[in-house]
């Protein structure tokens, strides 16, 4: 099989749609270990027994849509217009209301509105808002991106990021949740191996996860991308490490 050129890989990755939160374009081009706790399965178990639930920052609704059973009231929020459209198309047939909402507070819901709030990879958890919309004895169940996640990629393009490496820790989330009046009942962190098999996979990833390298474009980082292309050709997959933490917090009765 003929090895594909840098320009071919770049053109293919730039043409790919990055709407929604489905990463299937990377199948065969990148791999990522999954956390042992199985977020989607655990989320579905909790949704099956809830009465009113909220999924914050649902993306394109792909993860939420995997649940086989929803509570009588199921709502999802999203802020990015392409994702709002995709989530609406996917979730409305499942009787899930999709609400366009900023990632900034406040959440557009009344106090004590939900007995379950879930989220997978929120940009930021606004703990006081989460506590406000939870009913007494309600639960927040989420998988967050952990500290210095995939920073081998970030620092390849941006150089050392010592201060950024200190952010997004489970301990920080626990402190903020408790300050908002929640009781953290479960907290787990895992570091997971991620491999990128060609530079096109890296371009797609950075186009989709836009906060990793802010302002990323192929033209802006062409020299570094070409360097990475040669590195992968010479040494094999570019290896990075993803961090994820599971957090479950309860609002006191």
TrEMBL record:
Residues 54-141 form the Methyltransferase type domain. InterPro entries: 23S_rRNA_MeTrnsfrase_RlmA, Methyltransf_11, SAM-dependent_MTases_sf. Pfam families: Methyltransf_11. It comes from the Eukaryota. CDD domains: AdoMet_MTases (cd02440). One of its GO terms (molecular function) is S-adenosylmethionine-dependent methyltransferase activity. PANTHER family: METHYLTRANSFERASE, METHYLTRANSFERASE TYPE 11 DOMAIN-CONTAINING PROTEIN. This is Methyltransferase type 11 domain-containing protein.
């Amino acid at each position: 099989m003929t090895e594909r050129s840098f320009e071919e890989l770049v053109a293919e990755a730039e043409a790919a749609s990055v709407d929604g939160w489905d990463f299937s374009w990377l199948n065969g081009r990148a791999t990522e270990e999954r956390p042992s706790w199985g977020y989607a399965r655990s989320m579905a178990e909790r949704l099956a027994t809830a009465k009113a639930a909220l999924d914050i920052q649902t993306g394109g609704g792909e993860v939420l849509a995997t649940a086989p059973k929803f509570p009588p009231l199921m709502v999802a929020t999203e802020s990015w217009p392409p994702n709002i459209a995709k989530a609406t198309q996917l979730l409305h047939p499942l009787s899930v209301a999709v609400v366009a909402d900023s990632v900034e507070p406040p959440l557009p819901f009344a106090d004590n509105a939900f007995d379950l709030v879930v989220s997978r990879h929120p940009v930021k958890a606004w703990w006081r808002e989460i506590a406000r919309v939870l009913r007494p004895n309600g639960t927040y169940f989420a998988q967050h991106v952990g500290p210095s996640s995939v920073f081998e990629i970030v620092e390849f393009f941006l150089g050392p990021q010592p201060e950024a490496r200190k952010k997004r820790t489970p301990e920080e989330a626990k402190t903020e949740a408790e300050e908002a009046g929640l009781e953290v009942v479960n907290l787990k962190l895992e570091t997971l191996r991620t491999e990128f098999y060609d530079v096109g996979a890296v371009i797609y990833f950075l186009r989709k996860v836009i906060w990793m390298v802010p302002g990323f474009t192929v033209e802006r980082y062409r020299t570094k991308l070409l360097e990475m292309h040669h590195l992968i050709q010479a040494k094999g997959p570019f290896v990075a490490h993803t961090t994820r933490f599971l957090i479950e917090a309860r609002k006191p009765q």
